[in-house]
Amino acid sequence: MRFLRIKAIAKKELIQIWRDPLSLTIALLMPVIQLFIYGYAITFDVNNVTTIVYDQDRSSLSRELVAQFRESGYFTVVAQVDKYKDIDAYLDSNRARVAITIPYDFSKKVRTGSQAQVGVIIDGSDSNTATIAEGYIAAISLRYPQRITARTVLPVMDPRTRVWFNPELKSRNFIIPGLIAVIMSVVVALLTSLTVAREWERGSMEQLISTPVKASELIMGKLAPYFAIGFTDMVLAVLLGVTLFGVPLRGDIVLLVVLSSIFLFGTVSFGVLISIVAKGSQSVASQIAILSTMLPAFLLSGFLFAISNMPKPLQVITYIFPARYFVTILKGVFLKGSTLTLLWKEGVMLAMAGAIVFFLAIRKLHKRID
Amino acid sequence: MNQTSAVEVEGLTRRFGDFVAVDEIDLGIGKGEIFGFLGPNGAGKSTTIKMLCGLLLPTSGKGSVGGHDIMTESEEIKKNIGYMSQKFSLYDDLTVKENIRFFSGMYGVRRERRKERMEWTLEMAGLQEKRDEIVGALPGGFKQRLALGCAILHEPPILFLDEPTSGVDPLSRRAFWNLIYEMSGFGTTVFVTTHYMDEADYCHRLALIYRGKIIAEGTPMDLRKRYMKRHVLELEVERMVEALDILERRGINAAIFGSLVHVTVEDVEQGIADIRGAMESSDIQVKRIERIAPSLEDVFVTMIEVA
């Protein structure tokens, strides 16, 4: 294998990318912009849940309860209604997500020590928000008695929970590292997938395969510039995650670089493979690239939906997607400060996946027209 | 590589499904020869040249290019040839210099030779002043010469050119053929495909291909003598199409050549008489009728009719 030829191809590719300002901008900015948008857009934190109150008691105790909802910061009381019918109106028109109904005998029951019932109606059409709101409400109601009586009421069980690795339970911390993995998977594969297909479409591929260049040299030459671009994207994404989104980076940077490089190698090789298989059609190549990376990376990598919650057969399938390993790696390095001893398995899987795809690409690149 | 022939193939065939693009052709090309492969579009010229370059695997047949087997040693073949594809295949978004540098790297031109070859190519193509210009902006004639230059950076003994003069102005075409002659003079074997009949005369030897088969082979002189048993008369009349119709109905072989009609006849005197008779009976005035030397195009058209 001649390094001279690999260098010639890499240089040519780099010049071509550089001379096309549009593709260069997309290559470098697209991941950053996507991270920016989705980083802000995807959040599981529930704040400012619109709430209405139907207070039939109107006592100082009932007002105290409503105040606690307000002070929690999670609920925004938008109106006090005086008719049950109004609850329907507010919930149907989406002006409120939660309605609290306090019965007329609320304060009497509380003062006499019997169980007071408070009704809570939650808009379940957004089950995610509903479930979380339910949790908040339960917590608030648990604390309410302690606020209004002098006696400390001992609950049946007092869970003292500490959340490790993401103590504020900021969903952002949990989302951003995975999001970086997903974006990298898609963008890098998409960019690279056009490279060989474009040469065929232009006719320059025919000229290339008439030279003594080897398939392996051709592929390595094409890998290099796209790897460099992917690496730059990775650096930008990490910087953005840490500085703008405030995601902690607790692990070793060198480890991050090494494991990201292995991942990038595999993804770029995958892009080249798609490019070869798409038989000279850039549009087919890009479609294959998107279809084969986006959904698996988004849904099956453990990015948003825990793999352990999936049905067993699907769990097995997730093993073939490199994004799965990279999500684990990034979450580990960012949030847990994981070291190699913990992540070596993922690293090995990524390396293996990369090697397989690389050699497959070499095999599939025939230096013939048919 | 001490043999006298650069290219030797026998029974070369290529099928695409049911379609036979190249049908059992035999070729023998000597070192230093300029060999022309003529035929209309779709005849199988490009397919043949691609098989010889190792770009397409023949369906059947045997042979060698530069001493290497066409069926099993296509990568070896590629080391010893230069190939200029039909679309010129330069990188339109790279400069002249960048293209040369790229192909130097691809063909493995030795470092010591690279600068020299770069300067030679620039001079040969007339691009010394334009070395930093983007290739996409160059006129066709320049691109063509540059593409040729890039194909021979490594000074290969055999050169394959697929329709190198397509869409290029006549002046550039002439200049291009001068270059080919120069190279042939240095001992390079050149295999050229073209559909321009007038370029046939530039070649040492030719093969005429039609529908995948070779229908004639030899030097330009040979072809004229051997295949042209008949004579060609050139006829200038007013109503050409009508005249053609009349002649054909009388079983006289005629074809339109530009603004004239070429008629092939066995006997010149008789032929002239027949034609005059035919024209007069339909009241078409004959402006001129005379015998001409058959051009290769005449030969070819005749051959096709026979085929």
Overall description:
The complex is a heterodimer of chains A (370) and B (307). Chain A has 14 helices and 4 strands. The model of chain A has no long low-confidence stretch (mean pLDDT 86). Chain A folds into 2 domains: 3-42 and 170-364, no CATH class; 49-148, abc type-2 transporter like domain (abc type-2 transporter like fold, 3-Layer(aba) Sandwich), CATH 3.40.1710. Chain A starts with a helix and ends in a 6-residue tail after the last helix. Chain A has helices at 3-19, 21-41, 60-71, 84-92, 106-112, 127-148, 171-202, 204-209, 215-243, 253-277, 282-299, 312-317, 322-336, 340-364, and strands spanning 49-55, 75-80, 98-102, 119-122. A 4-stranded mixed sheet of chain A has the order 2-1-3-4, sandwiched between helices. In chain A, helix 3 (60-71) links the parallel strand 1 (49-55) and strand 2. Chain B is an alpha/beta fold. Chain B has 2 domains: 5-225, P-loop containing nucleotide triphosphate hydrolases (Rossmann fold), CATH 3.40.50; 228-306, YebC, transcriptional regulation domain (Alpha-Beta Plaits, 2-Layer Sandwich). Chain B is built from 10 helices and 14 strands. Chain B has helices spanning 45-52, 74-79, 96-106, 111-125, 140-151, 170-185, 220-227, 240-249, 268-281, 296-306; strands at residues 5-16, 19-30, 34-38, 60-65, 68-69, 81-84, 158-162, 189-194, 205-210, 213-218, 231-237, 253-257, 260-265, 286-292. In chain B, strand 1 and strand 2 (19-30) form a beta hairpin. The radius of gyration of chain B is 23 Å and the shape is globular.
